């Protein structure tokens, strides 16, 4: 996801409310925040950081629609056109028979599609080293990362801002 | 959550049932009554015309019913209409209590701010209760095959062995007792919850809330049984030969989503009139999710019932869909598809996105679609069995819908005036005021 040798300023917070307030404070000082890592979802954090609204719903809809169309093609082609089969006295092209398949393939494509989307958008994969600024963000700490190359302010200025906003530790990490 | 920027508005609101609203509702009821009278006059004049069409169209369906043996009278159409509307509005009313009860049991916080709306709905229950009881006692044989004279008497020419086999459940004394029990228990438990809630406004504390959880849970136990049995008694017993093990669920799903749509619509309309300022976009979003999800749930149950019958194709089961799809000259085909379209396709597509669930206008469109759709749901389930080929959609149908809807709105509005529009001392109110689903 990130280019090699990028410099990040990392602040570690002990409390989710403090972290959320810190995001608002630091942002109003004109600093761009790269991301905040937390062991659980913090209400309103994505809005505070200023992430654009997710398009994950559109992706899900497209995957679902693909599955739905695949199911229509599969059922009508195999059972109705290529090798018409009469089962239980029903017409080979009987729509109600195929609804369970349409439902299942819609769900299957959406589930797989969203899983793949999740891995891609988070830069996760079998051989990929995940971007982890501080492993404690998977346990009890809230970790804020600021991309120094994307900010005009100096490293020292941002560090003092982060410190003042309630961070327990401030460090610089090369990724 | 403290860092959130919320503008929490006042929770002191008194709903005013204005003279203008009362006048409009009275006009609506007047138009409804006039339509019913005009329609009844037309039916009474055109009484003979149904008989010619009789032989040709209805025969496939008839052998499960003996309507052909039973002389049709135009008043059956009036009775059936009263029955459809009573069942539909009784369901919507009781769902208000159902919603309160499961929110209490789950100790849900988000819904506290608009609790007074579902709380107001069950007050209408006595109206359908009286109509249903009077019709069942006085005109039961016009609605129910199993109430026909001599149907369970082996010496009678009308004897029907299959129906006689259901005598243990479908007999008049037990049936009437059940009807009284349903409405008595539903209305009684609502009264308890309602009084606890209104009293809570004055005294505060958590004691009433704790009690409301207990009585609500008692209601859920009662409703777990009575929602199914009432669905059999109100609807399924009309087609006495036929049965479906999905039917209780199916009717509950139908009532539930119609009740949720009623709540959502009421809340949106109250907001438009300047009330419920504390209801924010997140509440609307969640109500929209409820309507969306339970529309799909209804469709799921509908389809589960349909597919098994369609696939197995057993004559005694398939007759139910045969009658609705192509029986009686195909007059039920339109409501059959309107039902699916308004209850599944519209809410599914219209309410899918996040923004639509937060837009009052789109919520209103979806709710109206659900409400009209579920009227047709009950229409399609009841009419073929009661009036068959004599069914139709004319002044009588419109008139009764208008009468019932205006009376229901009147009842809800009256209830809303009886307390603060927001339960000011509800223990979960603070959480609800800050409800935010981002």
Automatic annotation (TrEMBL), chain A:
Keywords: Membrane, Transmembrane, Transmembrane helix. InterPro entries: ActD. It comes from Runella defluvii. The keyword Glycoprotein does not apply. This is DUF3341 domain-containing protein. It comes from the Bacteria. The chain crosses the membrane at residues 56-78, 98-120.
TrEMBL record, chain B:
It comes from Runella defluvii. This is Quinol:cytochrome C oxidoreductase. PANTHER family: PTHR43044, QUINOL:CYTOCHROME C OXIDOREDUCTASE QUINONE-BINDING SUBUNIT 2. It comes from the Bacteria. The chain crosses the membrane at residues 25-43, 82-102, 123-140, 175-193, 213-235, 247-270, 290-311, 331-352, 361-378, 398-416. Keywords: Membrane, Transmembrane, Transmembrane helix.
């Amino acid at each position: 996801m990130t280019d090699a040798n990028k410099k990040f300023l990392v602040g570690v917070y002990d409390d989710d409310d403090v972290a959320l307030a810190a995001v608002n404070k630091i942002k109003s000082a004109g600093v761009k925040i790269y991301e905040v890592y937390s062991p659980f979802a913090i209400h309103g954090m994505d809005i505070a950081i200023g992430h654009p609204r997710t398009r994950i719903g559109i992706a899900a809809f497209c995957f679902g629609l693909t599955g739905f169309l695949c199911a229509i093609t599969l059922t009508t082609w195999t059972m109705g056109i290529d090798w018409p089969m009469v089962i239980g006295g029903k017409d080979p092209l009987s729509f109600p028979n195929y609804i369970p398949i349409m439902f299942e393939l819609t769900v299957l494509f959406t589930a797989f599609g969203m899983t793949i989307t999740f891995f891609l958008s988070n830069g996760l994969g079998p051989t990929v080293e995940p971007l982890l600024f501080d492993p404690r963000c998977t346990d009890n700490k809230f970790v804020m990362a600021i991309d120094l190359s994307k900010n005009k302010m100096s490293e020292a200025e941002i560090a003092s801002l982060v410190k003042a906003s309630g961070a327990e530790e401030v460090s610089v990490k090369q990724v | 959550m403290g860092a959130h920027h919320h503008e929490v508005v006042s929770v002191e609101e008194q709903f005013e049932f204005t003279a203008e609203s009362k006048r409009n509702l009275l006009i609506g009821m007047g138009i409804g009554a006039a339509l019913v009278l005009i329609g009844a006059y037309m039916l009474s004049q055109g009484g003979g015309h149904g008989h010619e069409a009789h032989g040709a169209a209805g025969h496939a369906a008839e052998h499960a019913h003996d309507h052909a043996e039973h002389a049709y009278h135009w008043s059956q159409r009036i009775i059936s209409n009263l029955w459809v509307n009573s069942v539909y509005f009784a369901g919507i009313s009781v769902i208000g209590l159902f919603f309160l009860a499961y929110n209490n049991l789950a100790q849900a916080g988000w819904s506290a701010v608009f609790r007074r709306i579902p709380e107001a709905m069950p007050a209408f229950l006595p109206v359908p209760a009286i109509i249903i009881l009077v019709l069942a006692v006085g005109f039961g044989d016009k609605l129910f095959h199993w109430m026909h004279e001599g149907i369970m008497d082996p010496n009678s020419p009308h004897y029907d062995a299959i129906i006689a086999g259901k005598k243990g459940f479908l007999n008049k004394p037990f049936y009437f007792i059940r009807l009284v029990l349903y409405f008595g228990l539903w209305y009684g438990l609502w009264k308890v919850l309602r009084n606890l809630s209104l009293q809570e406004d004055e005294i505060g504390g958590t004691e009433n809330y704790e009690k409301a959880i207990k009585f609500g849970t008692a209601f859920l136990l009662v409703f777990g049984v009575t929602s199914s049995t009432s669905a059999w008694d109100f609807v399924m017993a009309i087609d006495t030969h036929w049965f479906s093990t999905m039917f209780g669920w199916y009717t509950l799903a139908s009532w539930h989503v119609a009740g949720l749509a009623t709540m959502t619509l009421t809340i949106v309309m109250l907001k438009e009139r300047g009330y419920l300022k504390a209801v924010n976009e997140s509440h609307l979003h969640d109500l929209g999710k409820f309507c969306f999800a339970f529309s799909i749930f209804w469709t799921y149950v509908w389809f589960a019932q349909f597919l098994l019958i369609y696939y197995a194709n057993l004559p005694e089961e398939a007759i139910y869909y045969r009658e609705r799809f192509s029986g009686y000259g195909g007059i039920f085909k339109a409501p059959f598809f309107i039902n699916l379209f308004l209850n599944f396709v519209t809410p599914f597509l219209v309410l899918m996105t996040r923004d639509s669930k937060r837009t009052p206008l789109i919520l209103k469109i979806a709710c109206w679609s659900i409400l009209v759709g579920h009227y047709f749901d009950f229409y399609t389930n009841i009419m073929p069995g009661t009036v068959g080929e004599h069914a139709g959609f004319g002044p009588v149908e419109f008139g009764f819908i208008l009468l019932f809807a205006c009376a229901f709105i009147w009842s809800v509005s009256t209830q809303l005036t009886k307390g603060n529009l927001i339960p000011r001392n509800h223990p979960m109110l603070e959480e609800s005021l800050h409800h935010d689903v981002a």
